[in-house]
Amino acid sequence: MLISNILKWELTPLGLGFSIRSLSSGQYLTIEAGIYNGVPIVASPYPVSWTVQIDVHHQETVQ
Question: What Gene3D superfamilies does UniProt report for this protein, alphabetically (predicted)?
Fold first, then answer.
């Protein structure tokens, strides 16, 4: 089985949350503009802080 970095992410403490960085591109997840339902999530060279929670019903899943 080939294991690649395409879908691997690094979570690093940042402020009260975590930055989320793609291991393949080195870019960070952020939102396109404003905070509202349905806002696009995009890649950026600048980190932002995300709140991350473990899903208690699916321990392998984060929200």
Answer: 2.80.10.50
